[in-house]
Specification:
Elements: E1 9-13, E2 19-20, E3 23-24, H1 28-37, E4 42-46, H2 53-62, E5 72-74, H3 75-86, E6 91-95, H4 98-106, E7 110-111, E8 118-121, H5 129-140, E9 144-147, E10 153-154, E11 161-162, H6 164-175, E12 180-181, H7 188-197, E13 204-208, H8 211-220, E14 224-228, H9 235-239, E15 247-249
Parallel strand pairs: 1-4, 1-13, 4-5, 6-7, 6-8, 8-9, 9-12, 13-14, 14-15
Antiparallel strand pairs: 2-3, 10-11
Helix pairs in contact: 3-4, 3-7, 5-6
Keywords: Carbohydrate metabolism, Hydrolase, Magnesium, Metal-binding
Cofactor: Mg(2+)
Protein name: HAD family hydrolase
Length: 256
């Protein structure tokens, strides 16, 4: 068993680790309750930029998880934190939902389609050809291109949906410009999250279900990495990669 004696704070992915299709996975509610009882600093991370932490907290309650909004960190918040450092009080043309627009408003950004500093693309089900055209033209005219996360597809009850990475690819094809991506697997998202809870990499562990985002970003950020098998990674998937997590568990119940 891996030594966790020095771990004092935790970052955990949400989908595939704590919840699946909106329902709490075995051990998830108990683990969150344990961290809260022991006053362990923790953040639940998600690359999904659709919802605000408050909305996500409410959705998780209905799935059986009691996670306060202060303990939720989305790629939208990470993107806003990045832009706030890069160009405080700037302007952006935003394609995204409330999770992203709220985060941008909170750092004092102006949303505009008139000569913005950035084009910011997040997860959305509600965009149209005009919005894509506008984004393409603004980027060609010098706006810098940012995407909240690289995920090409997302899950739904009916099967996969095209996600941020797919729309970004379309814009890249039209402009020749690649976006700077803030969410996982960019370790910057973990560093932002650790700053938010005052954590340090040498005493923080990260739980994820994906080798290609959670584990690689955790390794690059210098964290103790825990891969759980409740998401998409099985032995065949794990074997594909040239790196390994610190430990592999069946589910978060094994951390209790």
């Amino acid at each position: 068993m891996a030594d966790r004696s020095n771990i004092v704070s935790w970052l955990t992915d949400m989908d595939g680790v704590l919840v699946h299709e909106g329902v709490a996975l075995p051990g998830a509610a108990e683990l969150i309750a344990k961290w809260q009882a022991e006053e362990t600093p923790f953040l639940v991370l998600t690359n999904n930029s659709i919802y605000t932490p408050r909305d996500l907290s409410a959705r998780l309650v209905s799935g059986g998880l009691n996670i306060p909004e202060k303990n939720i960190f989305t790629s939208a918040l990470a993107t806003a934190a990045f832009l706030d450092k890069q160009q405080p009080k700037g302007s952006a043309y935003v394609i995204g939902e409330a999770g992203l627009t709220t985060a941008m408003h909170e750092i004092g950004y102006v949303m505009t389609d008139q000569n913005p500093d950035y084009v910011v693309l997040g997860e959305t089900r509600n965009f149209n050809f005009d919005m894509l055209t506008k984004a393409v033209r603004l980027i060609i005219n010098g706006a810098r291109f940012i995407a909240t996360n690289p995920d090409a597809t997302g899950p739904s009850a009916d099967g996969v949906l095209p996600a941020t990475g797919s729309v970004a690819a379309l814009i890249t094809k039209a402009t020749g410009m690649e976006p700077y991506i803030v969410g996982k697997p960019n370790p910057m998202m973990f560093r932002s999250a650790m700053r938010k809870i005052g954590a340090h990499s040498e005493s923080t562990a990260m739980i994820g279900d994906r080798m290609d985002t959670d584990v690689v970003a955790g390794i690059e950020a210098g964290l103790h990495t825990v891969l759980v098998r409740t998401g998409i990674a099985d032995d065949a998937e794990i074997a594909k990669y040239p790196f390994r997590p610190t430990e592999i568990l069946n589910s978060v119940a094994d951390l209790l």
